[in-house]
Amino acid sequence: MKHIALLGSTGSIGTQTLDVASHYPDDFQVVGLAAGSNIKKLEEQIRCFKPKMAAVWDKDKAKQLKENVSDMDIQILDGMEGLCAVAAMEEADITLTAVVGMIGIRPTIAAIQAGKDIALANKETLVTAGHIIMPLAREKGVRILPVDSEHSAIFQSLNGEDRGSIHKILLTASGGPFRGRKRKDLESIQVEDALKHPNWVMGHKITIDSATMVNKGLEVMEARWLFDVEPERIQVVVHPESVIHSMVEFEDTAVIGQLGTPDMRLPIQYALFYPDRKPLIGGARLDLFALASLHFEKPDLETFTGLKLAYEAMAQGGSMTTVFNAANERAVAKFLDRKIRFLDIPEIIGESMAVHTPVASPSVEEILSVEKTTYEFIESRW
Ligand code: NDP
Ligand code: MG
User: Fold this and answer.
1) What is the pTM of this model?
2) In 3-state terms, what secondary structure has residue 271?
3) Which residues line ligand 1 (CB under 6 A)?
4) Which residues of this UniProt protein bind NADPH (predicted)?
């Protein structure tokens, strides 16, 4: 029996994780849940899974939830303290991090310090603090198990292989809803257009990140930390069918990949059951004959400048990836609020990077301070 603490339980990854847990009641027990403000959904989850602890970021909502579940034996906490407490709770064996954004840094560190294995969906944490998280995980002897589908595919392709023999990582990308379009075609993009992903149903932030291809930039950064591979060895391959979830090319020219239908429950389940495989309840099997053909393209870095900026941020290193991420988080929030245009997103990232002088190996405090300065810069300009 594995005991799971789940951060971001009310979101897309969170609810799919609970779906997996509900299919395997003898294997998993959910002991902790955390969300931002959706206490209606969180209460349903609490009544269904009966965790010992739950946290809500919003303090007033946490108070309200506490009243709503006063008939139950559960501790309700709030804010960052609550998030960290759930992440590191004594009863948990594994903490699945599915909050959105770099808000996940402190709880992930708290979980690792408490010796929990991490099933990591929250890529923004590795993007900004990978240089802190990975050595800390090694020091504490905990596993960082990828949930992001591409990284799970790479992880699966590396099973039993010597990581020293990796020649290249081939990180696949669907290309998002605007694949094949040019910059001028993107000038009038509306929020509704950008939220229509061709292959995956996900939270709003990552869906916009997929449309700008910033998501792939974040994933290159994530892969670089997870697999200890230099960014130059990570090739983005646009593959519109999203069937090959990613591949590894080895020194001897062999290429090993993981294929499947697009269903996030597989990488979630793989991380939770690792190293075992179990049936994916309700999962569709890949029908190669129905597919008939697969396609591959080079990414268009002139149109999707967010991806180009990601490589630039990695080349400059240190705190520059925090600026890249923080600027994107703020720009996406503004786009979703209809305050800026679609093409302003990479523009804001680029301008924010241009005014920043990177600090090498920033501490958590420095990362959070760079985040704040980036937000202030953006507020002063847009
Ligand atoms: P969603 O927006 O669907 O869900 C986000 C979750 O985080 C919600 O439970 C939300 O709570 C919670 N949350 C937000 N802010 C806070 C906060 N301050 N404190 C506590 N909880 C908070 O996002 P996704 O599930 O799509 O994505 C989650 C992470 O997983 C992201 O990092 C994303 O990049 C990554 N990922 C997602 C994939 C997907 O298929 N969705 C695929 C691969 C990676 P509330 O509902 O109350 O707001
Ligand atoms: Mg992904």
Assistant:
1) 0.98
2) helix
3) 8-14, 34-38, 57, 83, 98-100, 103, 121-124, 148, 200, 202-203, 205-206, 264
4) 10-13, 36, 38, 122, 124, 203
